[in-house]
Amino acid sequence: MSTTEISREMKKSSHVQISRGMKTVLSATVVLFIASHFIAPSSTSKGAVLGMLPFAAVLAIIGLGQTLVVQQGGIDLSVAGSVSLAVVFVTRLPLEHNDRLWRAVVVAVFAAIVAGIINGILISLIGINAIVATLGMSSLQYAVIMAISQGSPRQTTQLLLHIMSNLTFGIPRAVYYAIATTIVVTVLLKMGVGGRRFEAVGANPRAGRAIGLKVKQTQISAYVLAQLLYCLGGIVLAGILAQPTAYQGDSLVLPSVTIVVLGGTSLLGGRGFPAATAVAALFLQQLNQMVLALSVPFGVRTLVTATALLVGIALYTIKWNVVRDKFSELTGKKKSSTLANA
Amino acid sequence: MNKSRVFKVASGLGVAAMLLATSLTSAATSSAAAKPSWCGPKKITMALTDGFGGNSWRLVTTASAQDEVKLCPSVSKLYYADGQGNVSKAIADVKGFVAKGVNAVVVFPDAGQAMLPTLRAAYKAGVVTVPYRVFPGGKDGVDYTAFIGTDFKQAGINWANWALKNLPKGGNVLFLSGPAGNSQGIDEAAGFWATMKSHPEFKKIGAQPFEVTNWDPALSQQVLTAAIAANPKIDLILSDFGPSLVGALSAAVKTGWKVPALAASDGNSLGCFWTDNKATQPDFKLYTVSTQNDHARLAIDYAVAKATGGTLPGKVYPSLAFEDSVSGKPNPVQCRKDLSPNIYLSAKLTGAQQVALGIK
Question: What is the complex's ipTM, to 2 decimals?
């Protein structure tokens, strides 16, 4: 991407506008809810929606973290370890004593910051591939988890259950936390100079460096903020599940990447769309709920997330006009060679 | 050294020797008295390997196996390795112990068929090879010494008989098990529905043969929410890992849902959930079968008997009823709030012993 393109990109995002990803994912979500109502009515009943929303909220918060990393051209596989570690900290350290909960939260946040800094240093300063570094971090976090918990679960404190699971105005509280987090991340990315710099560095670190941006600090901050969001997601998750396991983050890695892609953030880095990511979380969770209500075989259920990811990539990341040009170039060549043969 | 000092030292030594001798004889007599029939005279070393050792059920199971070995003085050493959910490590662990020269190896083959070539190699190398609980394929005496299984069908039959007694009008039955296609869930479902063949008043609801939950609380919660939404009337829930369902049940109770009858496997957290909710949930009857931590003991007994020349025990660990909230037989529902929710009161190891293993 050239400097003029960057400035165009920066200009484009200088005022809040509804992105293509947001339009797509929002309309897809509306269509999905209508379709669910007719295909699997039980999945849109009050109980099912109230049961689905807290999980969508957790996924949204974690997806916001993944968005920041993807914007920097990375991908964060330490979601598994980070979320699990936060869950283990806030359930194992207090051992069901409410008064010990805050201390556990502080420890969890501290651990998240440390993990983020290590990830950032490994990837940005030392130049290790993001997949390798974050995979290693996840293993490290699992080692800590095993040391603390021996893998056995523990019940969530009543206080955390109360904070996360209760309803306010008929809606699970986790939803409010997800909305608030989305607003904060959106404001950070879209309203300030810092956010614009963040996007510019993600789109092209070299160009960013050339125009005097602090590339390495920006990249490290992405990993730290991401870890903090995973940590928050883990704490909310621990409050939703009365008795979480020590490996609760395992099943969130693929969905977290999927919703980032569905929200229109390119896997190649650059602009990010936090609000669209959050809506995509709702979309994916409802899609799962609908498939669950249809009682389809488990094999089909596992394909849902993967298919959603493929569709997302097909929609936003692949430049179809380039593919089409290449294809017509190829077939054109073929045609001309057939003609020559004739 | 003067005479009196020599006398003092000598008498001291004498007393010490006598004490030592007494304690040795008493140890010998106690071990001789307690020496079980499966413990033969030949001296051996052996190994125990786990495919995945990282949860409280496995901790208790492994400790039960170690406790069992202590009963047989012919076993001079028991090695242990945890595959940590990694199939290649689990394979390397078994191979490593065979190379070390152990006489017997007891294997929890989580990876199933993937472990068979390794088991066969160990068996062909002359090591007494005893896989247990998860069927790895193959045959006794060809691919390994013997497979020590349990009758999961019997658990299903036990649940069914309890349901027939306690739900005379029948009802809708929802079964939640672990990963898709796991043989435990399939056998339990088969046992349950075979018993219910002449009882059409019991109807299957949800995915068949069971709803897949991976024994994961988050997935269990989502699956139960979907099942409750789709089926306003659920009369009986079956679960083969009861404690993994506690979170989902508590979440559902918060929405005003009434817990129906539940037939499951035991766990302290489940027992305490029943105890906490029995007053407000009139339909919540609870029946559990033992979660079978002591299955590992039978596998150890068999391997030791074969390697030391003792009397061979049976090859199938029985599925036993543990708690019944209605009849109180064989036990009323157990809840030890003073101990960890993650212990299993059906195990031979006491709750306090399990807590001592580090289970908090």
Answer: 0.74
